[in-house]
Structure formats: C-alpha cells, structure tokens
Amino acid sequence: MYAKTTTIRPTTILSQRNTTETFPNVYKQIPPSIVPRTTVPRKTKVEQLPTSMERKSVSKNKHNKEFDFIEEQISTLTSLNETEKLILPHINHTNKIFSDEKISTTQNTSKSTPYTPGLCGLINIGNTCYMNSALQCLSNIPELTQWALDQKKSSSMENKDIIHIYTSLIQLMWSGENATINPRDIKEIVSRSAPIFIDYVQKDSHEFMNSLLNALERTNSISIITNLFHIYTQSQVTCTTCNFIDITNEITTFLPLSLPRKTLYNKEILLENLINDFCLENNLNGLYYCHSCKQYTQAKQKTNICLPLPHVLVIQLKRFSFDNTFQKIDTFVRYKFQHKNLISNNDIYQLCAVSSHIGSLASGHYTTLAINKLMKQWYEFNDHHIKKINEDFVVTNNAYILVYLKLEESNTSIS
C-alpha cells in the first residue's frame, strides 16, 4: 500500500540524548509514541484489458426485485441531526428531485425519490469488488460526501479530471434516483495515476482508496483531503553508539497497524493494544548510517503522532504479508463503535465504515459495512447488492479497513 508521504528535515539536528527541538504549534507532540510503519510494494502482472461491460440504466419508476433494499424509502426519515440537514437540502439543489419548497422532516418524498440516497450499489465490472468497497467507505464519510455534493456539475463530456468524475459519481449515488451505478469511469481515471489498477485482476481496497485520495489532492491541491485525512507524524531514529537523533516529519492519510498471528493463547486482540504496540520503540533491522558517527551502526526508531489529529482516521489492519505465501493474518481485532483516548488523551472517534475481506490474498472478496446517515442504519454493501444488517455483525474478524470520525466532546454519537 502506498501512502502519500512528505518528508521535512528539521532545521536543528539533535546531537544529544536529551536534546529536544522546538517544534511549531502544528506539530505539538502528544503521547503516545508510535512505531514507524513499513510498506512493501507488491508486483502485479498487467494483462490485456477485457471489453468493458455496457452501462445499464435503471428507471426510477420501475421496481427491480433484484435489490432487497428498495423498501427503505426516504419517507421514513425523521429527527434529522445537523449533518443530515446539510445533506438533504443539497440533494434537492443538485439533482432537482425535490420541490423548491423547504423540505419538512415528516414529508413523504417517496414519489420523487424511489431509492434512499446513499443506498446505491456499484456494479462489479471484473474483479473490482476492492474498488467498490473503497468507494462505499468514502461515500459514507459525511463531510467528504457533502463536499462532493457541493461541486458544480460539468456540462461538457471532455477534459473531465478526477475531481469531476468522483464528485459526479457521489452525486449519482446520493441522488435517490439510482439503484446501481457502473463505476467504470473512476477506475479508468485512477488507473492513469496508478497503473496497477489498469487490469481486471483482484487488487487491494486500501491501496485503491489511498491512490484515489492522493490523486484527488494532486489534481487541485484541494483542502478537503488535507483537512479530513492528513495524519502528521514525527519519526525519530536514535544511534545506539553516539545517541545522535535524526528527526523526519511525515504526512500520511492512514494509520497502518501490524497484526500478531493468532495463537492458542491469543485468539483476539484489542484495537487499543495494537496502537500501544505500534507506539513502542523498536530496533531497526540492518545497519543505519549515522551522520554524526559517519559510519554504519545499530539504531532504534519510533514515530510520534502530532497535532492536529485527523478528522477522519483511516486504520489499515495489515492482514497481508506479501511474502509470496499468499497467507492472510486472520487474527480477530476487537474494535468498538466509539473509542475514547484512542490516539491521544482526549480524543473521541466513532466508527462509520468497515472494509471487509473474505478469503485469501490470492482469492478473496471485499464488501463494506457502513452506516447511512439519513436512515441511521447499518448496511452491507456487496457490489450491487445492499442489505440492512444488525450492529452485532459490524464487528467482524474480516475487518481490513476501519474508518473513524473524530467527534467533539459534546457529541456522543453520529447515529
């Protein structure tokens, strides 16, 4: 998985064990320390592209029995919170599916909205369940979706960049007019910046999500990605010979957590414990070139998370070793719907989406479990199939990506 990383060398090099560097306010160090991540690129064989499937439109006036989620009509919406009050009026403005009058929270809109906004399936166009899972996770992040709904529609079919294509996809998914959508355009444009996705072989949902976010930010340096997803970290490498400390500041869009392999005495592990383990200082593998000693020595490394904390915390549970064994670490990670003090002493994060993987690295299938803000209900998104699920099924040993939203202390729930 490839994380967007910006490296910033500190202006003052630390040469003493107890020396500290004055850090700008944006990089106020907070406990705990975090162990550096490791990313290993994997090789993917690029094959000839098959013929793409033709688009199929779904009439909003015709009931399709194939989808078991259509009975969830928008008329059941009641008691909208502040975020929902932002989303519904915008759907009215963007897609012209409601009247120009102010929408009442008790108004029956089933005639103009045959499908619930956001409950829109994505067609699998050939081993693209990984992409569909990533897109459904992002679609159910309220602030990101609100930004997409606020974007103007382009009348021209030419010279559309990734921002236009992604926001158009989200607008269709939240219009309430579609049961399913063909996401071919978003796959094609992400493949331009990340050629690994050009073929139709099974890929990684987190890798696609990260590539999409990076491409969105590169296109227009849009602040929405920075404001929501950026995680600021500080990596410290300490020479064990002279105690010289080398500091590197980094920016990433996800927090990767290594998993222990399941044993007879360790059938599950808490998410908090994974982060605590991630915080420990570890010995570097191999030799490190010390700029103070001017020689290769042994060294230790750790990473600290810095302020500000991300509004959207994307956690990757590293279940794949990529060691040519195609083995998957299926250790059960016990995570909560709401975590307090997860990565600092005063944060509150609430779960909004989970990308799940069933099977092995060589052959598997991705789905998404996410809460729809308008319906206040959890659903399973399985390509073009969507079904309501009980909260008991959200915490699963198949969890691969966890998407958490940062809450203010005055808020206790997003549902």
**What is the ordering of alpha helices and beta strands?**
EHEHHHEHHHEEEEHEEEEEEEEEEEE
Number of DSSP E strands? 19
Question: How many separate domains?
Answer: 1
| Stretches with pLDDT under 50, minimum 5 residues | 1-86, 88-111
> What coarse outline follows from CA principal-axis ratios?
globular
The oligomeric status of these chains comes to: single chain
Question: Regarding CATH, which class?
Answer: Alpha Beta
Classify the beta-strand content into a percent band.
15-25%
CATH topology category name? Cathepsin B, Chain A
Structural features:
21% helix; Cathepsin B, Chain A; alpha+beta; Papain-like_cys_pep_sf; Ubiquitin carboxyl-terminal hydrolase; hydrolase; ubl conjugation pathway; five-stranded antiparallel beta sheet; 8 helices; Peptidase_C19_UCH; 415 residues; eight-stranded mixed beta sheet; disordered N terminus
How would you characterize this protein structure?
- This protein is an alpha+beta fold.
- The chain has a single domain, classed as Cysteine proteinases (Cathepsin B, Chain A).
- The chain is built from 8 helices and 19 strands.
- The longest helix is centred in the middle third of the chain and has 16 residues.
- It starts with 28 loop residues before the first strand and ends in a 9-residue tail after the last strand.
- The N terminus is likely disordered.
Quick overview:
The protein has helices spanning 82-95, 129-139, 142-150, 162-173, 184-193, 205-220, 223-229, 271-278, and strands at 29-34, 121-122, 180-181, 231-239, 245-252, 255-258, 268-270, 282-283, 288-290, 295-297, 299-306, 312-318, 332-334, 338-340, 348-359, 364-372, 377-382, 385-388, 399-406. The protein is α+β, with helices and mostly antiparallel strands. The chain has one domain (113-407): Cysteine proteinases (Cathepsin B, Chain A, Alpha-Beta Complex).
